[in-house]
Specification:
The complex is a heterodimer of chains A (107) and B (121). Chain A has strands spanning 4-7, 10-13, 19-25, 33-38, 45-49, 53-54, 62-67, 70-75, 85-90, 97-98, 102-106. Chain A is mostly beta strands and 107 residues long. In chain B, 0% of the residues lie in helices and 48% in strands. Chain B has strands at residues 3-7, 11-12, 18-25, 34-41, 48-53, 59-61, 69-74, 79-84, 93-101, 115-119. In chain B, the strands form two sheets. Chain B has a six-stranded mixed sheet with strand order 2-10-9-4-5-6, with no helix packed on it. Chain B has a four-stranded antiparallel sheet with strand order 1-3-8-7, with no helix packed on it. The chains are: A mainly beta (107), B mainly beta (121). Chain A: This is IGL c679_light_IGKV1D-39_IGKJ5.
Amino acid sequence: DIQMTQSPSSLSASVGDRVTITCRASQSISSYLNWYQQKPGKAPKLLIYAASSLQSGVPSRFSGSGSGTDFTLTISSLQPEDFATYYCQQSYSTPRTFGQGTRLEIK
Amino acid sequence: QLQLQESGPGLVKPSETLSLTCTVSGGSISSSSYYWGWIRQPPGKGLEWIGSIYYSGSTYYNPSLKSRVTISVDTSKNQFSLKLSSVTAADTAVYYCASDPVAVNLGVDYWGQGTLVTVSS
């Protein structure tokens, strides 16, 4: 299985801050990396697919980059509704695997 | 717009078999675009992919659960199902069904709301 490692595990930030979350794959996954946002009691929501493509309806303050083994999710200016947990997931091979999550908290 | 809905018991006894069904609406489970997957999340923890099935019956499973998991599909009912045998308290989790795109450059865009299954005597 491909292991996905996110950092940091948790992060405190303020409204308006620029935030970056990283995800590293245990082997090259080309650009087959997706990012999700999950709020308490809700299913995850797809934000970014194929490393850098913005899912329809997702605000443009979210962006993704990377290829191979190293990827980033950036939120350019945090909004109150962005405080949530974020997961990366590889779709390069089966079984699909997720990172352990990054909890984004209000400072 | 696809909609997925999990159903099944919320409480299962240790050593028994957990059984859940996912009903797909707004589209056909026989679509060539998707596998149909099960994902779980223990309370306060991260997401774990259990496995997926194609409408033809082709499956793939997480190796860590493979010996205990069976996923099946019923195209006539537009449903797919999960069976997890010999459950323990470690299998307590919210179980989600989801679309799993065949195209590797796409993410999971449709999820069920999730159903909490507790393993306890």
